[in-house]
Design brief:
The chain folds into three domains: about 110 residues, Methylthiotransferase, N-terminal domain (Rossmann fold), CATH 3.40.50.12160; about 230 residues, Alpha-Beta Horseshoe (pyruvate-formate lyase- activating enzyme); about 60 residues, OB fold (Dihydrolipoamide Acetyltransferase, E2P) (Beta Barrel). It has 13 helices and 18 strands. It is an alpha/beta fold and about 475 residues long.
Amino acid sequence: MKIGFVSLGCPKNLVDSEVMMGQLVARGHQLTARPDDADVIVVNTCSFIDPAKEESVHTILEMAEFKKTGKAQRLVVAGCLVERYRGDIQKDLPEVDAVVGTNEVERIVAACEGATSPLPPVLEPYLYHEATPRVLATPKHSAYIKIAEGCDHPCTFCVIPHYRGAFRSRRFESVVVEANRLLQQGVRELNLIGQDTTSYGEDLGLKDGLAKLLARLATIEAPQPYWVRFLYAYPNRVTQELLDTIAAHDALPKYIDMPLQHASANVLKRMKRGSNGDLFLKLLERIRRTIPGVAIRTSFITGFPGETQADFDELCQFVEAAQFDRVGVFTYSDEDTSKSFHLDGKVSKRDMANRKRRLMAIQRNISKRMNRRLVGTEHTVLVEGVSAETELLWEARLATQAPEIDGVCYINDDNGAPLRPGEFRRFRITEAHDYDLVGEVSGAGEPVLAPPEALFPILAGRAGNQISRGQ
């Protein structure tokens, strides 16, 4: 059968899609990027916040039309929306033929093939490993590796533990084997992901597990230079050993993605995260002292229940003082399965949106100033390909620009050395904008290994809780 995939949500969801596609290919099925040519369509959903739920439902209904106008005989819905609304989907969406939850990833083959016999209950939360079949849906030179699943943090606004279960780490060598295989195939950038990567190994009795894992991955003998980045650090898990490890290895981008969510002690207490802006500033000082030139990304929530104008003003003052390189801002989403749903002091949607706009305006000015300081400097970039914005320019990324969520570098001059996706080039910055940079590359291109396996384009782009570029 020909099977098409739509993957919505974060990179963690994308890895689930890649694993499901791998299992289907191993079974002998074909993948197609054309929904009108697919015998079965799978929609891997996100339901982290309201816009993600709306996007998921819209996409399900959109793909259901191909059962009327195309070849599709089955529509399978997978992912977080299933964990939350399984009964509602089966009752209210007759177009859906099967559902697969986040811990039922291995059942995708049976769901697509139309198995009629009852399936046994899932006894253990799912976690893929190095031998799990997987088909990458990212560009050939970049890949995500999920090093852990689930979460044990008690954040009141978050529903992920309900969907993903308790925190559990992959075995150390399992991650190393997968990373080595990808690098040998020509991948140039590995992005380690999990709900909280900084807790990696704690459940295995491994102290400073992430630092040890990064140190091991940074010393793999690969055929070409490469980057290993990790995303989603929890602030009270950022140890000195982790910072020292990042500073010590060239293969580790000087980049920290550390969602703080707020700076007011009052709001953070209601979020069940603790800490305060002053402690965060001390942590930021330690990070910058240990890793010169580090870029720090964070995210905040505006309009959390009980957030007063004074709390928000404190957040704005904190952002001014912290001088982050990148900031993403969400308005609070009142999810009925989250603990914060029952808190008093709800903030109006209008105030939430206004606060978000004000905070982003502050950060836009900070980002612009920081980018202007880079004009005239030269850096190594990873060439991505022709820009989606204009075919006249190519895009690349600095080590301090993570895929999908940060700004990009636009190349307007290759100095006579043709560009190829997946190569590292030297890039001189000539212009600075609010979030993006413009410049020229120098030197000849380098040989680029092509991964032997074909990579599969998903039917639709990621959405949901993905932070748009520039935030």
